[in-house]
């Protein structure tokens, strides 16, 4: 009796076993993510950092495959947008048509500080420098998502 497939089956089993338990750093799924930290600047010339995380209470985000972003808003409304990880996973872009004021602050291209299966930490690429005024009225300074 010939066993030509036995070595192939053993090798395939080893490969599958080795992959089990490894964390997939890609959040693409139908899992829900919430905002764990949202920092913007208070209006005015002083550029004072402001933790406004509570503004996202009741919001959740789905980073779906095909670059689709689905945002669950308080009251059950949905808003769709696009997301894309690029530049060797160092940049993440979020876009949407006619975003409400709050969501407008997350639209744009962000520097990726951390990106894993359970946490996404994004920093505004125009991070403030003391003495240099930057207009942050349209995009926050930092946003952190965690998987629910």
What is the CATH level 1 assignment? Answer: Mainly Beta
Write the element-wise H/E pattern from the N-terminal end onward. Answer: HEEEEEEHEEE
State the end-to-end distance: 53 Å
* Helix-and-strand structural type: mainly beta
When the domains are counted, the total is 1
How many individual β-strands? Answer: 9
Strand order, largest beta sheet: 2-1-9-8-7-6-5-4-3
Specify the biggest β-sheet. 9 strands, antiparallel
Please provide a written account of the structure.
This protein has a single domain, classed as Lipocalin. Strand 7 (108-115) and strand 8 form a beta hairpin. The protein has helices at 6-19, 101-104; strands spanning 33-41, 49-51, 60-63, 68-72, 78-86, 91-95, 108-115, 119-123, 142-147. The longest helix has 14 residues, at 6-19. The chain contains 2 helices and 9 strands; from the N terminus they run αββββββαβββ. The protein has a 9-stranded antiparallel sheet with strand order 2-1-9-8-7-6-5-4-3, with no helix packed on it. The chain is mainly β and 148 residues long. The chain is globular. The termini are far apart.
């Amino acid at each position: 009796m010939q066993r030509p497939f036995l070595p192939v089956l053993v090798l395939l089993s080893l490969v599958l076993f080795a992959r089990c338990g490894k964390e997939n750093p890609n959040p693409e799924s139908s899992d829900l993510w919430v905002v764990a930290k949202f920092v913007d600047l208070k209006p005015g010339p002083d550029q004072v950092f402001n933790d406004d995380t509570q503004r996202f209470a009741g919001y959740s985000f789905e980073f779906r495959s095909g670059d689709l972003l689905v945002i669950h808003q308080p009251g059950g409304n949905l808003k769709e947008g696009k997301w894309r990880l690029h530049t060797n996973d160092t940049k993440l872009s979020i876009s949407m048509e006619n975003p409400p004021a709050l969501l407008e602050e997350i639209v744009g291209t962000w520097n990726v500080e951390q990106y894993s299966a359970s946490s996404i930490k994004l920093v505004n690429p125009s991070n403030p420098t003391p003495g240099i005024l930057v207009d942050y009225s349209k995009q926050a300074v930092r946003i952190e998502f965690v998987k629910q």
